[in-house]
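Progress against Task 2.4 (sequence-to-structure conversion) is shown through the following example record, which the project officer requested during the mid-term review.
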Amino acid sequence: DPGVCIRGGGFRVIRYMPEYLGTKPYPTEIGDVVFNDGSATPYGNGISLSPEQDEAVISIIFYAGNELNNSGDTSKRVLGIGFFKSASTSIWGPDSHGQDITETSLDVDFTMNNGCNTEFGESSYKDGRDMLNQIKEEIIAKGWDDDTGDASKYPQFYFGINYKDADINVIGTEYEDGWYCPTLCELCFIGRAYANNNLGTMLDAFTGDYLSGISFWASNLVNASNSNKYYYKFTSTGGQFASISYSQTYYSLAIRQFN
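Structure tokens generated for the chain above:
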């Protein structure tokens, strides 16, 4: 906003230019490149980052809208993907509790598996920010000992919680926390963005090709299954998903909401 300076009985307008790394103060649209001061720059062919920007880039926006809200929430969400995956693969979770919850509201609802273009029902648990806490509540409700505080038992969740250990660009900023393991719905929307040629190329450039051909765990539980969990495999056309035994090993990735 302009400032007003009074001088000699008159006035002149002084425009204070904001100082931030991007071309706009915060991300709003798919393809926005996000820096650790919270600002953003829209992607484009031939985009080039300055050395200062390169040392501060932390995410690219893959989604902006309200389709990934849980039931009853209509607010806009702006979601970005972290540029690092877990250093190694891991099982989904422990050999008790997590995979034994067979009547859960933390599943997804769909009639046809159409990969990244699958349409998910309103009852689907889509927003993964509070998933581990929701699993904790279901464990406690069944009278079991809560083990969700043990990072070694829920490695894909704690990769997100401790994402700052993977990306030094977020350390010491307001964005070092708030990262989390995505739901299957959120993974599908990453896949949709990845299938877009320009955005897919940019994601590959920033992530070092860590998505292409790689499978990642989703955070959802699977209703009526005592052992299966969802995983998502990225491909050039977006990707496919399936459910498989929790004891299989896949990578973890982290996403964050930026609004």
